[in-house]
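User: We ran a pulldown and think these components assemble together. Before we commit to crystallization trials, I'd like a predicted model of the whole complex to look at. Sequences follow.
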Amino acid sequence: MAKVFDHAEVAQHNTAESCWVILYGNVYDVTRFLPEHPGGSKVILQLAGTDATVEYDPIHPPGILEENLEPSDKLGTINPDTLPKEEKTPKETGEVQDEGPVDLDSILNIDEIEEVATKQIPYKAWAYYYSASDDLQSKAFNGNVYRSILLRPRVFIDCTRCDTSTTFLGHQVKLPIYVSPAAMARLAHPDGEWGIAQACEKYGAMQIISQNASMTPEQIVANAGPNQVFGWQLYVQNERNKSEAMLARMNKLAACIKFICLTLDAPVPGKREHDERSKNVAANLPVRATTTTTVQEPQSQSLSKTSTKPKTMGMGQSLFWGTAADLTWRTTLPWLAEHTHLPIVLKGIQTHEDAYLASLHAPHVKAIILSNHGGRALDTAPPAVHTLLEIRKYCPEVFDRVEVWVDGGIKRGTDVVKAICLGARGVGVGRAALFGLGAGGTEGVARVLESKSSFPFLVVGFFFLGDWGRSVWICVANVWEIHSS
Amino acid sequence: MAKVFDHAEVAQHNTAESCWVILYGNVYDVTRFLPEHPGGSKVILQLAGTDATVEYDPIHPPGILEENLEPSDKLGTINPDTLPKEEKTPKETGEVQDEGPVDLDSILNIDEIEEVATKQIPYKAWAYYYSASDDLQSKAFNGNVYRSILLRPRVFIDCTRCDTSTTFLGHQVKLPIYVSPAAMARLAHPDGEWGIAQACEKYGAMQIISQNASMTPEQIVANAGPNQVFGWQLYVQNERNKSEAMLARMNKLAACIKFICLTLDAPVPGKREHDERSKNVAANLPVRATTTTTVQEPQSQSLSKTSTKPKTMGMGQSLFWGTAADLTWRTTLPWLAEHTHLPIVLKGIQTHEDAYLASLHAPHVKAIILSNHGGRALDTAPPAVHTLLEIRKYCPEVFDRVEVWVDGGIKRGTDVVKAICLGARGVGVGRAALFGLGAGGTEGVARVLESKSSFPFLVVGFFFLGDWGRSVWICVANVWEIHSS
Amino acid sequence: MAKVFDHAEVAQHNTAESCWVILYGNVYDVTRFLPEHPGGSKVILQLAGTDATVEYDPIHPPGILEENLEPSDKLGTINPDTLPKEEKTPKETGEVQDEGPVDLDSILNIDEIEEVATKQIPYKAWAYYYSASDDLQSKAFNGNVYRSILLRPRVFIDCTRCDTSTTFLGHQVKLPIYVSPAAMARLAHPDGEWGIAQACEKYGAMQIISQNASMTPEQIVANAGPNQVFGWQLYVQNERNKSEAMLARMNKLAACIKFICLTLDAPVPGKREHDERSKNVAANLPVRATTTTTVQEPQSQSLSKTSTKPKTMGMGQSLFWGTAADLTWRTTLPWLAEHTHLPIVLKGIQTHEDAYLASLHAPHVKAIILSNHGGRALDTAPPAVHTLLEIRKYCPEVFDRVEVWVDGGIKRGTDVVKAICLGARGVGVGRAALFGLGAGGTEGVARVLESKSSFPFLVVGFFFLGDWGRSVWICVANVWEIHSS
Amino acid sequence: MAKVFDHAEVAQHNTAESCWVILYGNVYDVTRFLPEHPGGSKVILQLAGTDATVEYDPIHPPGILEENLEPSDKLGTINPDTLPKEEKTPKETGEVQDEGPVDLDSILNIDEIEEVATKQIPYKAWAYYYSASDDLQSKAFNGNVYRSILLRPRVFIDCTRCDTSTTFLGHQVKLPIYVSPAAMARLAHPDGEWGIAQACEKYGAMQIISQNASMTPEQIVANAGPNQVFGWQLYVQNERNKSEAMLARMNKLAACIKFICLTLDAPVPGKREHDERSKNVAANLPVRATTTTTVQEPQSQSLSKTSTKPKTMGMGQSLFWGTAADLTWRTTLPWLAEHTHLPIVLKGIQTHEDAYLASLHAPHVKAIILSNHGGRALDTAPPAVHTLLEIRKYCPEVFDRVEVWVDGGIKRGTDVVKAICLGARGVGVGRAALFGLGAGGTEGVARVLESKSSFPFLVVGFFFLGDWGRSVWICVANVWEIHSS
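Assistant: Here's a predicted model for the assembly, 1940 residues in total across the polymer chains.
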């Protein structure tokens, strides 16, 4: 039977020499694990000797603890009566602040969704979602490029028959809009990635699950509808066996998860300064203040001896820990074929040359995603629309061989129309879904995907965020005539 | 003889089960009509049991009440002594606020007209006039495109003989500027569309009457001069017989109304967020506060039972209610020919392809209007100047077959010169007329159209808003040389 | 002998029926002249019955009074002891405000000259100098176009021999920079146009005298150096005999005045809103307040009877009064040849077509000035650099036939280099000279023209405003390679 | 033995007739030297009769005093007890202000380095570093041009092997980034140019020493590592023998100094208005206030007699004093060859024509630096990237004959990638190093050069400022496809 600890005893183990933490009522010795923690040891040491559940929970999927610790590291349970009754403000704990219920119907566009969410979610969640590389040039390009494309509306088109449904890799969906793989959804709302799945089910949208999701794939697909479509995003790990284990796990979920989405646009983590700065903000949490006080005690000397200058990282960097940078056309696709029979989608294509190379791997590769990782990887990388235009010009046969999806900067129904008219099969939205979650949980995501009207397009009919669709109706098929302003 | 009601009795009928309103001293039972109201039931329920005349009057033309209610719905008259003497502020009632008389001569340009009007007219009128789709990109393009075209003034041209007159469809007018069909003029000023007509008569300008005018066509043309030219704008209704009735009515007014202007650029209503938000502002009117109080009474429960979440819409959406989205080249023009012998003007052409198609329907179609609906329909639709340049390049024969009119963004005399030099026969102004009305009623519209000088152009001579004309004199005919900055 | 009046008697003649004013100690009856006043009758009526010298003086050259009045209109002299000792603030009287001496050496560029002058000169002077047409687009283009041209500096060029001198129409000058004809210099400083001439003499710069100068040509050239070069700007009057008289007067000054500069870019006055608004500001002067008080007296009734709504104009419009709009190639040049043997310079050429036509009139026409009148005539007219580039492309032979001068937007030495490299013989500065006058009288203008260094150019060497020159040294001759940014 | 003076005696020699100053405890008579001082006599006269060490020290390298004065000018030493104990604020003395230690790790980019330094360094240091010519257009172009070039990242590239090392003129370096010759480093921090050298040694970066360094070349290279690479920047002096003496001195340092960098882009000093204005700020120093007081004494009359208006200059101008403007291809390179056998690097090439001419002088000329002098020489000169593109287009053979280096506007690792992909061998950073010094002395410069990751490029692998490198990884080799946004 597990030993029961008093908080006072746990509190003494707050150094790099002996580091205990309380999680979900259990007491763990994480001393051995400290140097292996993807997020750096400092962030754990700041919580050493305390109940870290509130900080730990929203950014770690269930099971990850057991995966990384030995059974013997679990020392016992905590006597809850001995825990201090400290008052943490919602901001400090990272919980959603209660500013009264949000009237989702009063939110009219994606910018407003972001505005509402920004007020509600913890600072570090905002910093992680909002951040992009360097000077945020590519993030800005992503949005502005759609503003610079004018539509050419035709008249006398019967707009009464409309169908926004389409297929991705042969799977029927009701919207040409899917949710991109976006990590750490529970930072925004406890509904997390499961909540996104629920909203997608409601509107028939596809969802790609991030490898860095804050819930397990099994949890996310738990209530999936019979025709709901998911993909799973793979960051190949330096320790390939870890990736192989994940692929094996996906194979078991193949009823829901229809493809593997291999991420190619981030061989190294992006330089996201908002995210990096948020670690300092986090450093001002009361829990850390406690640790800091302790640091002035004798024990802290041994702490500083072991790691004089503990290295911290932004969320983005710590999630990236362990990702392989040695992928090649020659080695990676065959390795994937060995470990999964699911179709492959290549995410992060940014030149027509690579789009062409990818298309040569059809039908193993069934789709490519033109993406600059939301501007979060390499700043001044081109927006997806540029690559789409390149493919149209230099190698249009790509469209015949693989499906071309795009993401980045989609905020209006007209943006979706433009992408599709230029050859995309569908578009992904990432931040919009996360901010929707932050604005109203599952219902907030639903508001992002909501559509109320229907009408036809020459290419395909659809619309976006509630009433937005009304302003979008006809776009000529001969897109090479699209005029830049 | 009509029964006389006390206000107390009327006030009890303030639910969806029994909804009475007082209008112009009469008491009506509108319970049956609630679900049919184009603006939604909620806006009526907010005024249920009260005297709604002030809210109703400026946005409904006379006769519309009788058209929609049964004779039996008129219950009797109100005893005015029983009405509460509530103090409504001008802002609340939507009446023009008195900030002292405006010196119209001190207004030097269209932007100042808008500025003055914005201060004077009710918020919801401003929101309806000002609003455009989505991010207001097309509205901004409309104006900026003229700034990006430079004139090439010639010297040693005798500028003493000048004539700004021209013809539209063969009808003589004194200005190449007409007032576009703009709805809800009485929101800005009681003079309404009739006031616009008076100002047009003063300066010999043409006017196109909106189907959604806040006065009847008969009222608007009531004091028309012998040579005054009007057109009437048709939004084809899903119930075609309603449109056919309107066309029959126009045929009787053919002494004044010289053509039917068929609107093509709005098969679905635009997403005008300023307008949509103004409904919430309107929801703060005291009259609604009263209703809200009532809502907490037992009756309100039955209200919420019937329509738990009454849907409201912006002005633009509610005006749009019932408009047909199934117009086609093949069906609509023949149908029109059956019901009117008036010439047809097609409004909302936005590509040279459609301009060309329209020109094939001459002489039934006598003119086309290049318009993106003032940026109010599809955002990122091209400004009229783009389409004008397309026609010049790809199918200049269009200019020989039909007259080409343009609207959107015209604010300076130089804008008019540029449009005409590029091939337009004339230009329409919409918001400028409405804001002129808001700034000073009939005289305000006159100030917009006023011109004091005259001098010649190689193409056609004219000028704009009083002294503006002075800065405009010569523009070369070889417009293909116009330089973008 | 002249009668001596008391102020009390003069003060009674303050209506349109009997309007007296005191000027330079004399009493005049200007009743008859009221309707002929180029600036409108209202501006005189506002000063009726008072001593108007302070308002009159800076905007009227000597002799103009005698030219316009009959001898009998001069009634006598005023008894100065009877004049009220009213305290006029410098702002009100239009005198230069004393904010302490300006250290001209601390002014480093033209923008700072304007900034200093703006603080010092009366509001109506600022409004007249600063104003340009409509939205000030052309004024802005004039400056920005030079920012958009990059220089291509060469290395290993010996920069020790430098000569900024050049010739205009064969006359030697020390700078390729001349002062453009700019009106109403005494509004800025009592030194007026004479002060500008003194500064030009100091640095060997040419000056073109405005027909609307606030001093007579004779006064302006009074202290001219033996080699000082002037031109005189002609606005042809509707009453040709007035222009002919002026030309005869210039013929007598031919020792100094070397050419006639015919203005072509303003057949009608520009719409300068800043200038128009300043009339309202002027209307708040105490002197007018006095008149306004009088207006409430019985006499004012007769005033309002005669001219119920006296029309006022901005300075620009009133100066323009009487200018002919019927000039043509066929009639105007021969008429000029009849009345002067001075060479002709055509100012206001804005297209290569007109530059070409002008060059066919060489050698009668010896130079053309590419100018959009400082953006003060037609808004969105092209900057001179555009026309220069057009000529280079379509008809470079123009450069061989006539000298090409440019003005508008010159603020840096690099601007001068660019204009000359593109084919201009020299450049004019207008506002800079007026603001220099405002900043420091004659010395302020000198600061604008000052140059301290000298170094060579492939084309011609020179520099601008004191130390500015240092930053300008080499510009390649093959200007067709100039790159736009 | 040297005479010992009391301060009271020295203080009397504060005029142009007899001007003594105290420096490093010695008393000097600088009366004779006054008119020769490159920075003008006024700046010395402001300090006449006082201890000028604090003002003198950071802007003069050791030895310069002895070089310019006669032995007899050194009068003796000061009795330190007689010196006034005046309280100078750090701002006044120009010392670094203590705002607490800066956490260099928290600085994430070059803009933040500049921000931190700006708060810490004296105003005149900031003004000298920050300033650029005229309107700072070229300075702005330098940075913006990199933002307008988009990268085209390739996928499936093995990024695990990375080497940022390269060679300059055959010398191995670890970074393709060198420190440009930047003057007056001790204004920012006492570590000065020596500190920059230490930081360069730490990261294997090359450094070019400015002729106007605030330390002697011997001091700067004092602790150079065995493989550390330096160049020395020559401004040819009008008195050629001075330059020849310097070249001889460099020949002796040839173990460290591997080339002579001849500056060509500043035949005359730039017009740097921020720098010029800072002299006025300096004029408010208390020491000057003292002088000013003295000026009202009789002695001041003789002062004003000798030099009624002492001329002051900005730092940039005074450093420039004596620089030759008569360099030519024909004369200068042969003269250089006579006086040094070190390879020549030509700095300031701004056109492809001159790049081509320079390449004809290989192998004497071994490299060219495309530079507009940080925007500090001729405003609206082109950014180096323009010239790089010109060379690629018109004369790519230049790349085969000489190394092409670029500087100006480099702030991100992506900027370095772009320059190299376009053909540059390496890039220089000037202001970044100086501001790094201001932010944290030697460690601050190290932070600028720091790099933590490594990964390969098709062209060459490298990165910049710490974590920046992470966002930069792949850039295609076929750079002619680089897209402008």
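Residues 3-85+276-313 of chain B form a domain with the Flavocytochrome B2; Chain A, domain 1 fold (CATH 3.10.120.10). That may be worth checking against your pulldown data before setting up trials.

User: Thanks, that helps.
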